[in-house]
Design a protein that fits this description.
The structure holds 2 protein chains of 2 kinds. Chain A is α/β, with parallel strands linked by helices. Chain A is 32% helix and 23% strand. Chain A is built from 8 helices and 14 strands. In chain A, helix 4 crosses helix 8 and helix 6 crosses helix 7. The mean pLDDT of chain A is 94. By secondary structure, chain B is mainly alpha-helical. A two-stranded antiparallel ribbon of chain B has the order 1-2. In chain B, helix 1 runs antiparallel to helix 2 and helix 3 packs antiparallel against helix 4. The chains are: A alpha/beta, B mainly alpha. Chains A and B meet through strand 4 and helix 3 of A and helix 1, helix 2, helix 3 and helix 4 of B.
Chain lengths: 333, 218
């Protein structure tokens, strides 16, 4: 393992110190590993809380700020944060209109957020609702598994709900909106290489030089199948066709096309993939109206990419375009 | 029988023994998790049980219920992932089942473990055969109950429970995971031993070797 580290056990804590020094617009509670937008709680606004394991940067802390999240709980690498963190954050972002938990669908995250909501209900009168994000079509037979994973959909969900929260919309309406964005979003990822979890020090799985893994998660968990390495024009359909088969993206007012790096894949390759993906969408009659290309939901140092499509209607498009000021997304303000 | 009382000191020995075996098996647990999960089970359980031992050292609980509550809350606070809520719930649910007694007879201890298992099932929604910690814990508690009902001393009953947990753990190898992160692999999860069932077998083994340590030497 070759990484910029001191002691792997201190990685998250030391990285949060750097976030605090580099980004004064965020407030960092080091003891509880919570990051807040500096002006939280925003009076009269529903507080938006997300979080999860570390190792997905810029998710989750990169999406805190006006127009998006109010706070994020950081867990250990690839490990859900704990209920105490979530209930503490919930109390501190309640501006009097309640708090919405945006939970990525992983067994640990869902259980810890459940316990946090129980704690919050027992200790405060903050009204809490939770929406689970689950967009990964690589998970088949979701009735017989922990369900579809939460991956790229978190970005449009958090962005769009964040914009609507700034407009002063209520908790239930925002929860419905979050579910609507989630229901209109599908993702699929692939890996060229495994990632290396610092505490383990060796790659999580072995992937021969001439093979790739299709249907990968964002934690180094192996995917559904391995196939021989192929040109990008042959890999793109392996990612896009399952999305198109799962949801009719030709209806509606166009789609957001989000091509995400798993961490180690450069922009040069991501844009090549974007061209391949756009060509497939053209042939399928799917109209891209917005794009997002870059590392947003990563898996440490894994090479590979994921594709997320969100079916927009006029309202979702307007909320996507609304101003946002976070480390990861910034426009209009 | 009189030597079979499970008091706070015995329960402390159990937890310390479990913490020691988790520390020793840390890399093994992580390697099992790397095969079908996300390569953190050993590190997470080690962090949690180290915190439990630290809590025992700094603020020793005075009765079994307080000890279970302290261990459960410490695990919930320090582990994260799925293991934190599941192991935390296991101990948290054991606390009320003790009825506040200073010392538990073997049947009450077994009843408390059963309440813990029910908590785990309620929290994780796993059934027997889903390739989870339930596959080690459920047969272990059945064996414990059966041995106690047959009049066996606690030490022997816990050894039977540990053997059943080990069997349950081994039986997870061919199973296809239906809960947790391993379930994403579908059929590819078969052929691997479940890390959660493995750490649970260590927990039951720690009861067999740690809890009744003094009985063995008497």
């Amino acid at each position: 393992m070759k990484k910029l580290l001191n002691d792997p056990a201190d990685l998250v804590a030391e990285s949060l110190r750097g976030v605090e020094r580099a980004h004064p617009e965020l407030r960092v509670d080091h003891e509880n590993r919570i990051l807040y937008r500096a002006d939280a709680p925003v009076s009269g606004k529903v507080g938006l809380l997300s979080g999860g394991g570390s190792g997905h940067e810029p998710a989750h802390a990169g999406f805190i700020g006006p127009g998006m999240l109010d706070a994020v709980c950081a867990g250990e690498v690839f490990t859900s944060p704990v209920p105490d963190q979530m209930s503490e954050a919930t109390k501190n972002i309640d501006g009097g209109a309640g708090v919405l938990h945006l939970v990525w669908n992983y067994t640990g995250d869902v259980m810890n957020f459940d316990m946090a909501a129980e704690l919050a209900a027992a200790e405060t009168d903050t009204e809490v609702q939770a929406v689970v994000i689950d967009d990964d079509v690589a998970v088949e037979d979701s009735l017989f598994t922990a369900g579809r994973r939460g991956t790229g959909a978190a970005i449009p969900v958090e962005k769009i709900v964040g914009a609507a929260a700034e407009q002063g919309r209520g908790l239930t309406e925002l929860a419905d909106l979050a579910r609507r964005v989630n229901d209109n979003t599908r993702s699929m990822g692939m890996a060229l290489t495994s990632c290396t979890v610092p505490a383990k020090g060796t790659p999580t799985f072995d992937l021969p030089d001439d093979e790739i893994e299709i249907g990968i998660g964002i934690h180094g968990e192996p995917g559904r199948r391995r196939v021989p390495i192929a040109p990008a024009r042959e890999i793109a359909p392996m990612l896009v066709e399952p999305l198109l088969a799962d949801l009719d993206f030709t209806s509606g007012d166009g789609v957001l096309v989000f091509v995400n790096s798993m961490g180690a894949t450069p922009m040069l390759e991501l844009h090549l993939m974007y061209a391949e993906i756009a060509a497939i969408l053209d042939r399928a009659g799917v109209v891209p109206v917005r794009s997002l290309v870059g590392p947003y939901v990563t898996s440490l140092d894994m090479a590979g990419c994921s594709v997320t499509l969100t079916r927009f209607d006029d309202e979702l498009l307007r909320l996507w375009d609304a101003p946002v000021a976070t480390l990861g997304l910034r426009w209009g303000m | 029988m009189p030597g079979d009382a499970v008091d706070t000191a015995a329960l402390q020995r159990w937890l310390r023994t479990f913490a020691a075996s988790v520390a020793e098996q840390r890399d093994h647990l992580t390697a099992l998790d790397a095969a079908i999960g996300d390569a953190d089970h050993g590190a997470n359980m080690h962090r949690g049980m180290s915190a439990v031992v630290a809590a025992l050292d700094t603020a020793p609980a005075t009765d079994p219920a307080a000890l279970f509550k302290q261990a459960g809350m410490t695990l919930v606070k320090s582990v994260g992932g799925a293991s934190g809520p599941l192991y935390g719930t296991l101990f948290l649910r054991m606390a009320p089942a003790t009825g506040g007694a200073a010392s538990l007879d073997p049947e009450t201890f077994a009843k408390a473990l059963r309440a813990g298992l029910e908590g785990v099932v309620a929290r994780g929604k796993a059934e027997l055969g889903d390739k989870t910690m339930v596959d080690a814990l459920a047969p272990a508690l059945d064996a414990l109950d059966a041995a106690l009902a047959a009049g066996e001393p606690l030490a022997d009953a816990l050894r039977a429970a540990s053997a059943a947990a080990d069997e349950g753990r081994d039986a997870t190898v061919p199973l296809v995971a239906r809960k947790g992160r391993a379930s994403y692999l579908g059929e590819r999860s078969a052929g691997h031993q479940d890390p959660g069932a493995t750490s649970t077998a260590l927990l039951v083994a720690a009861a067999a070797t740690g809890l009744v340590e003094q009985d063995d030497s008497s």
